[in-house]
Amino acid sequence: MNELKLIIATPQKKLPPLTCDSVRLMLCDDAKGRGGGEYGIHPGHIKALMALQEGPLHAFLHGEPILEGACGAGFASVEGNTVTVVVESFQKK
């Protein structure tokens, strides 16, 4: 089974990379208020760059949550099976 590498960075810290098989986070709406909301990323996802709004971030491995937290606004990128999240803040729950 393919896995993702999740990297979370804030201006104050960079968390150690985490191995997971899915990530859920909150996307910003576009200028007309469309398209935002919860978004899921799985292995094999296409290359992407996304604007994030404040909200929850969840990472799962084999269907079990392994990381739950609250993100500040920022960006997420997907390249290969690496998800990089750069946000104003991140607080584990």
Describe this structure in words.
By secondary structure, this protein is mainly β. The protein has one domain: ATP Synthase, domain 1, CATH 2.60.15. Helices cover 0% and strands 59% of the residues. The protein has strands at 4-9, 18-20, 22-27, 37-41, 48-52, 55-61, 64-71, 74-79, 82-87, 90-92. The strands form 2 sheets. The chain has a 5-stranded mixed sheet with strand order 2-1-9-8-5, with no helix packed on it. It is globular, with a radius of gyration of 12 Å. The chain starts with a strand and ends with a strand.
Count structural domains. Answer: 1
Helix proportion of residues, in percent?
under 10%
Structural class label = mainly beta
How many whole angstroms does the radius of gyration measure?
A: 12 Å
Estimate the global geometry from the Cα principal axes.
globular
Number of helices: 0
Distance between the termini: 27 Å
CATH architecture: Sandwich
| pLDDT < 50 stretches | none
Task: Please identify which CATH superfamily we are dealing with.
Answer: F0F1 ATP synthase delta/epsilon subunit, N-terminal
By DSSP, the count of extended strands is: 10
Q: What would the average pLDDT be, to the nearest integer?
A: 95
Describe the main β-sheet briefly: 5 strands, mixed
Order of helices and strands: EEEEEEEEEE
